[in-house]
Amino acid sequence: MPVGDEAALERELSRADAKVLVLCSPHNPTGRVWAADELTRMAELSERYGVAVVSDEIHADFVHEGYVHVPWTRVVGAGGGAGRWALISSGSKAFNFPALTGAYGLIGDPADRAEYLRRMETAEGLASPAVLSLTAHIAAYREGGPWLDAVRAYVAGNLGFVAERLSAVLPELGWEPPQAGYLAWIDLRATGVDDAELQRVLVERERVAVMGGAVYGAPGFVRLNVGCPRAKVVRGVEALVRAVEAVR
After folding, report:
1. What mean pLDDT, rounded, does the chain reach?
2. How far apart are CA 14 and CA 168, in angstroms?
3. Which is it for strands 104-107 and 183-187: parallel, antiparallel or unpaired?
4. DSSP state letters, 188-212
5. Cβ-contact 197, 165 below 8 angstroms
6. What sequence ranges are listed for the domain Aminotransferase class I/classII large (predicted)?
7. 37 and 79 Cβ atoms separated by less than 8 Å
8. Cα–Cα distance between 126 and 119 in angstroms, integer?
9. Residue 19 DSSP SS3
10. Residues 113-128: pLDDT tens digits?
11. Closest of 66, 44, 22 to residue 178, by C-alpha
């Protein structure tokens, strides 16, 4: 459903077969940071229709200047609805250690929490977290603040470059940096390019892989990862521009 479309959300939650709302907060791939009143409304609607909420907040540590992430625990704690909920996250996105396969979760209802742990232990054989992952999370959250601040600033510069370059050569896009994350979600529909042909040119001619929006149910968009050295971002953006010009 469209991001921020409350009417569409309520229609989906009111369906008889709606059981769980999976919320991405901040949103991937758009980089949208949900406001407190939006989250409160989601909580109210979910509780009204008996829908559990699983809030995926893995990008929460990468919110850019001027925006504030509101965790789901604060929403339910402020009276925005109780219901059944879980908040899941990991340091793997912000601190770049996904290979350690670690994550953590908070589950509001004690019975749900006990059942989740029972299933993990009996069905999955996972009685404890990976030691390396646990150690990495503790170190990152205790001591990684200055490093993360520097990385966010660097990525903000990368996003600024993308905005400046696209504004200069493809002004019809009206692209602006996301509120969170290191992903540039770019709407190319104004150019009229064909998705399949664009991907072919990017891969075969430019030797650059950019994820197409169709993966997210949004044809006409591309998702460019800028969480990398500036030189790679420049190469990727220039390749995208050349590919668009070649197929439009």
Report:
1. 92
2. 45
3. unpaired
4. -GGGT--HHHHHHIIIIIS----EE
5. no
6. 7-240
7. no
8. 9
9. coil
10. 999 888 888 876 666 7
11. 66
pLDDT at 81: 55
Sign of the CA dihedral running 78, 40, 29, 109? positive
CB of 76 closer than 8 Å to CB of 109: no
Burial class of 162 by CB neighbour count within 10 A (0 to 12, 13 to 18, 19+)? buried
Structure tokens at 48: 């009204």
Strand 221-225 vs strand 20-24: parallel, antiparallel, or unpaired? Answer: unpaired
- Domains along the chain? 6-143 (3.40.640.10), 146-247 (3.90.1150.10)
Q: What pTM value is reported for the model?
A: 0.88
pLDDT at 65 over 90: yes
Query: How far apart, in whole angstroms, are the C-alpha atoms of residue 129 and residue 150?
Result: 29
DSSP 29: T
Contact 32, 4 (CB under 8 A): yes
Q: What is the pLDDT of residue 3?
A: 60
- Collapsing DSSP to helix, strand or coil, 86 comes out as strand
Q: Which two structure tokens, joined as six digits, stand for 15?
A: 């369906």
Tokens of 1: 């459903």
Alpha carbons 122 and 65: distance in angstroms, whole number: 44
